[in-house]
């Protein structure tokens, strides 16, 4: 009897349709989870061949995993789409230009040092006024929608971005309640250094000692989600080895995409049972920062922050890890803060890893929907727990001319803790 | 009407693209494969084209083009149907209404809403909930299924016990006929003169025309709603309780029954802490507080007198929601305890629930298969789910035969072969067992009055054995086909 595959779990009930952002956009079954499972099954069974059309439908999936919690039959859609994408990557069906662009992205994003060089360029680009010139002229959009998307995504880089670095260890304040390792992240470390700094301050104030293992690279999440399992496994193994033997109670991340990937690391080493076992042991310790804090009664006093904050539930936090309650509770624990929900709040913002770079039109359509919801929520601050979401939503808001500041929930908590300190320190 | 030639298919695709735009015509085989079935997965059939019109005018042009090309039309909403009502027929154009999702007008003074057919059932309620109104029919797939599909199937749901089926909540509809004519039937005025053309339309399974607008009745949200759960040692006692509650003149808003296997599936999908090895009645009482109190108290007393081990109320609103989620996701959740299953949809007199469930258990044991039961007990609307594993040779056929035996049992005790899922492609073969030839001829005359050329959804509802001796259920080659003397098309 043939083994039962993840694609065989789908009973075609359609409960995934209304939560799928691309089905919501286009109403076509090929761009729904149920349709993509059909497509993946037909590919696996050899009923259809990979063609530009089939690849386009697989590529248009955001990988937001909204379909997983909506599925009564428990279909593991993430596995199905990663496997289908690996099939696409292994084939030669993509045009050369597309392959080149993807190769360029994957020679850049998993490497914090290279990202930092990009940040330096972006700083110069901004301060010299070249950025203003490029954006005003619309030159890039004429050349390529993808390059324009890449450019538009660039956050305003400051000198702080170029010089920020993480300490190797931050001691707990007061009685030590736990000892954790911090995952620095790639995009997070380079473009949002303030998030890691806020995380360190909050954890220390809550009596948690933090070590930051040096030489951390990328966790491999972007590669795994894009169907590049070998690259993902290499990166994950390297990261794993940096954390092993440190006697940690938990490995903490503040980036939702990294967290969801690292919690399921065991399945990424199919050919190496020993390494898979080490990966599972590592995965068991991974916690999102909001998850860690929600599991411990707060000890640091909270200072008032009178503001209205809209919450964006990052897909890899809410859908992939089921963490929906904890970040909201952390924010609601701040005196004076009013938390507001977005319309269609569980929907992806269109960022989705490298999606906004390789599928710019679709990402913009979905992102505009999110920006509209943020504006309708009438909150000056948007809390988002994933760097990709923050970059993309900020860009969509910028293009809409809306003055909304994106912040990681931990930055808001950090501000509250600092406000409660004597001398404001 | 035979299948289109490839050239004719190309020409029709081009014509459709002129009408609805290139982006809304699906014509590549690798794309058409995702439209081969609806919520019923066997008997997959590839359509010639799929077209997604965006307005009544576009639907009318699409109908004219398909008719001119000699291609039958199969309308489709969200494709959640469980009787194959939206399953394509060979050479057909599937007309998906999924893009027509606008809520056209809300009139709370008169308690009505006008919507396009692609609007999701629950989105109607979401649109008016803030003002304290809701749309009552609540199929378990209400978060996905569309109003157009509900009208086609005359969909029911848990709360139809008290509030009635879709047909009781549709006031008017706009319909595109087989020649592209646009017709408005029904109206918001009470008791209009002339023939009521709306009545045959609701539940006509997409065979009279394509509905492009629907005016629905809205209800005020009940002042209070209380959910309670009665736990019985087995379906016998639970079944008795249902008939006694109804016989006592108590009208809960919903009485849903789940047996042990269905409970296991719902628990696996939601993490509810329900007991297993028992039968549950999930009930809602709604209305003014004193009425709710009365219904809850009397129904609980009767349940206990019939042998209920306990009657519980949810701890909080979150648990209440989870209980209903457990019930409403139970069909697909069965996918967690069995690789494959068939959903049946028979109706029986409420007084027969216990005896029929026993007989189903006996038939299942005879067939060597498991049957899970999760259903609208208050309406006597059974949903036996026949569990099987298609990888075991012969098991799918055994399951289909068991399903047929269950439907025949329903007819025998004075019930019917479908309560709310429709006849579709799946139950057509059983129609002749439920109805006389004269009944079926009369229904066919109504069909022909609207659609004489059988343009819309041909081959559904009416039994049309193409070869004598063809059996219902999953396709098996007829001996004449196997001998190469005839072919299936």
Radius of gyration of chain A: 21 Å
Shape of chain B: globular
How much is the average pLDDT of chain B?
93
CATH topology of one domain in chain A: Rossmann fold
- Indicate the CATH class of the largest domain in chain B: Alpha Beta
Query: What is the tally of beta strands of chain B?
Result: 18
Helix-strand category of chain B: alpha+beta
Keywords:
heterodimer, A: 425 residues, alpha/beta, Fumarate Reductase Iron-sulfur Protein, Chain B, domain 2, Rossmann fold, 5-stranded mixed β-sheet, 4-stranded parallel β-sheet, 9 strands, 52% helix, 8% strand, B: 489 residues, alpha+beta, Uridine Diphospho-n-acetylenolpyruvylglucosamine Reductase, domain 2, Uridine Diphospho-n-acetylenolpyruvylglucosamine Reductase, domain 3, Alpha-Beta Plaits, 4 domains, 5-stranded antiparallel β-sheet, 17 helices, 18 strands, globular
In short:
The complex is a heterodimer of chains A (425) and B (489). Chain A is of the alpha/beta class.
Describe, in plain words, how this protein is organized in 3D.
The complex is a heterodimer of chains A (425) and B (489). Chain A is α/β, with parallel strands linked by helices and 425 residues long. Helix content of chain A is 52%, strand content 8%. Chain A contains 24 helices and nine strands. Chain A has helices spanning 21-26, 33-44, 52-59, 67-70, 77-90, 96-106, 112-127, 130-137, 139-143, 145-153, 159-163, 187-191, 193-205, 221-225, 229-243, 256-262, 273-283, 289-294, 315-321, 325-332, 355-358, 360-376, 387-400, 409-419; strands at 169-170, 178-182, 208-211, 250-253, 286-288, 307-312, 337-341, 381-384, 405-407. Among the domains of chain A are: 6-94, Fumarate Reductase Iron-sulfur Protein, Chain B, domain 2, CATH 1.10.1060.10; 307-424, 3-Layer(aba) Sandwich (Rossmann fold). Chain A has a five-stranded mixed β-sheet with strand order 1-3-2-4-5. Chain A has a four-stranded parallel β-sheet with strand order 7-6-8-9, with helices on both faces. By secondary structure, chain B is of the alpha+beta class. Chain B has four domains: 6-96, Uridine Diphospho-n-acetylenolpyruvylglucosamine Reductase, domain 2; 103-220, 2-Layer Sandwich (Uridine Diphospho-n-acetylenolpyruvylglucosamine Reductase, domain 3); 223-268 and 278-325, Alpha-Beta Plaits (2-Layer Sandwich); 338-489, 2-Layer Sandwich (Alpha-Beta Plaits), CATH 3.30.70.2740. Chain B has helices at 6-20, 29-32, 56-69, 121-128, 147-153, 160-163, 198-201, 235-247, 260-270, 289-305, 317-328, 330-333, 353-367, 395-412, 431-434, 437-450, 479-482, and strands at 25-26, 49-51, 73-76, 93-96, 103-107, 112-115, 133-134, 170-176, 182-186, 210-217, 219-220, 224-232, 254-258, 279-287, 310-312, 340-343, 370-376, 384-388. In chain B, the strands form four sheets. A seven-stranded antiparallel β-sheet of chain B has the order 15-12-14-13-17-18-16, with helices on both faces. A five-stranded antiparallel β-sheet of chain B has the order 5-6-10-8-9. In chain B, helix 8 (235-247) runs antiparallel to helix 13 (353-367). The termini of chain B are close together. The relative contact order of chain B is 0.11. The model of chain B is unreliable at 466-470 (pLDDT under 50). Chain A binds chain B through residues 1-2, 4, 8-15, 17-18, 26-30, 32, 34-35, 38-39, 42, 47-49, 51, 53-54, 57, 71-74, and chain B through 23, 26, 28-31, 33-41, 52, 78-80, 96, 98-99, 101, 118, 120, 141, 143-145, 268-269, 329-336, 339, 341, 391-392.
């Amino acid at each position: 009897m043939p083994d039962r595959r993840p694609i065989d779990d789908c009973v075609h009930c359609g409960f995934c349709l209304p939560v799928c952002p691309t089905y919501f956009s286009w109403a076509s079954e090929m761009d729904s989870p149920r349709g993509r499972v059909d497509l993946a099954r037909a590919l696996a069974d050899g009923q259809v061949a990979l063609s530009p059309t089939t690849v386009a439908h697989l590529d248009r999936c955001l990988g937001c995993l909204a379909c997983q919690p909506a599925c009564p039959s428990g279909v593991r859609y993430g596995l199905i789409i990663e496997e289908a994408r690996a099939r696409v990557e292994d084939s030669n069906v993509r045009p050369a230009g597309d392959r080149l662009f993807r190769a360029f992205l994957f020679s850049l994003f998993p490497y914090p040092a290279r990202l930092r060089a990009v940040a330096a360029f972006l700083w110069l680009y901004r301060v010299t006024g070249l950025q203003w010139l490029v954006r005003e002229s619309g030159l890039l959009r004429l050349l390529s929608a993808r390059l324009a998307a890449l450019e538009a995504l660039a956050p305003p880089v400051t000198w702080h971005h170029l010089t920020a670095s993480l300490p190797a260890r931050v001691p707990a304040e007061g009685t030590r309640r736990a000892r954790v390792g911090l995952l620095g992240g790639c995009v997070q470390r380079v473009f949002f250094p303030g998030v890691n700094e806020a995380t360190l301050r909050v954890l220390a104030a809550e009596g948690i000692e933090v070590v930051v293992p040096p030489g951390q690279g990328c966790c491999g999440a972007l590669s795994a989600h894009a169907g590049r399992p070998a690259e993902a496994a290499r990166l994950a193994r390297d990261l794993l080895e940096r954390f092993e033997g440190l006697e940690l109670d938990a490995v903490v991340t503040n980036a939702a995409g990294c967290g969801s990937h690292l919690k399921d690391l065991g399945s990424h080493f199919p050919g190496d049972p020993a390494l898979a076992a080490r990966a599972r042991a590592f995965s068991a310790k991974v916690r999102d920062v909001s998850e860690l804090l929600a599991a411990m009664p707060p000890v640091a006093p909270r200072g008032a922050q009178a503001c209205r904050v809209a919450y964006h539930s990052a897909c890899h936090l809410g859908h992939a890890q089921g963490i929906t309650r904890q970040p909201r509770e952390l924010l609601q624990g701040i005196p004076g803060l009013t938390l507001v929900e977005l319309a269609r709040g569980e929907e992806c913002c269109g960022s989705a890893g490298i999606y906004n770079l390789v599928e710019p039109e679709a990402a913009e359509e979905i992102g505009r929907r999110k920006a509209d919801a943020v504006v309708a929520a009438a909150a000056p601050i948007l809390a988002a727990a994933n760097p990709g979401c923050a970059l993309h939503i900020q860009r969509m808001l910028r293009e809409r001319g809306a003055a909304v500041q994106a912040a990681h929930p931990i930055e808001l908590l950090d501000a509250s803790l600092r406000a409660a300190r004597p001398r404001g320190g | 009407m035979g299948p289109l030639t490839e050239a004719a298919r190309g020409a029709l695709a081009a014509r459709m693209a002129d009408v609805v735009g290139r982006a809304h015509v699906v014509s590549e085989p690798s794309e058409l494969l995702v439209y081969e079935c609806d919520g019923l997965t066997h008997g997959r059939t590839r359509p010639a084209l799929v077209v997604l019109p965006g307005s009544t005018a576009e639907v009318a042009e699409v109908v004219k083009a398909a008719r001119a090309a000699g291609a039958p039309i199969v309308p489709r909403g969200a494709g959640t149907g469980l009787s194959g009502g939206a399953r394509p027929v060979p050479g057909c154009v599937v007309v998906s209404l999924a893009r027509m999702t606008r809520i056209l007008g809300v009139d709370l003074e008169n308690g009505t809403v006008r919507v396009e057919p692609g609007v999701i059932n629950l989105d109607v309620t979401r649109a008016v909930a803030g003002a304290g109104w809701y749309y009552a029919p609540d199929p378990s797939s209400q978060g996905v299924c569309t109003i157009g599909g509900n009208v086609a199937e005359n969909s029911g749901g848990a709360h139809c016990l008290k509030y009635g089926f879709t047909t009781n909540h549709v006031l008017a509809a706009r319909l595109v006929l087989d020649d592209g004519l646009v017709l408005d039937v029904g109206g918001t005025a009470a008791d209009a003169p002339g023939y009521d053309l709306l009545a045959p339309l609701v539940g006509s399974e997409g065979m009279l025309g394509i509905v492009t607008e629907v005016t629905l009745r809205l209800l005020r949200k009940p002042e209070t709603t209380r959910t309670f759960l009665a736990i019985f040692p087995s379906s016998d006692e639970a079944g008795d309780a249902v008939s006694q509650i109804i016989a006592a003149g108590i009208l809960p808003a919903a009485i849903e029954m789940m047996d042990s296997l269905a409970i296991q599936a719902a628990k696996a999908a939601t993490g509810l802490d329900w007991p297993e090895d028992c039968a549950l009645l999930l009930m809602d009482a709604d209305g003014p507080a004193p009425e709710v109190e009365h219904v809850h108290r009397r129904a609980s007393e009767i349940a206990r007198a019939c042998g209920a081990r306990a009657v519980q109320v949810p701890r909080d609103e979150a648990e209440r929601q989870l209980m209903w989620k457990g019930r409403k996701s139970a069909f697909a959740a069965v996918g967690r305890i069995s690789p494959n299953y068939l959903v049946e949809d028979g109706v029986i007199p409420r007084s027969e629930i216990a005896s029929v469930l026993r007989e189903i258990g006996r038939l299942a044991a005879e067939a060597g298969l498991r049957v899970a039961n999760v259903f609208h007990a208050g309406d006597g609307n059974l949903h036996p789910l026949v569990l099987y594993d298609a990888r075991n040779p012969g098991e799918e056929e055994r399951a289909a035969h068991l399903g047929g035996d269950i439907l025949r049992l329903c007819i025998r005790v004075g019930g019917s072969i479908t309560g709310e899922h429709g006849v579709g492609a799946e139950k057509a073969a059983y129609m002749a067992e439920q109805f006389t030839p004269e009944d079926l001829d009369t229904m066919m005359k109504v069909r022909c009055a609207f659609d004489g050329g059988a343009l819309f959804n041909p081959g559904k509802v009416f039994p049309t054995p193409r070869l004598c001796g063809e059996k219902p259920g999953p396709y098996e080659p007829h001996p004449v086909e196997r001998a190469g003397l005839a072919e299936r098309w």
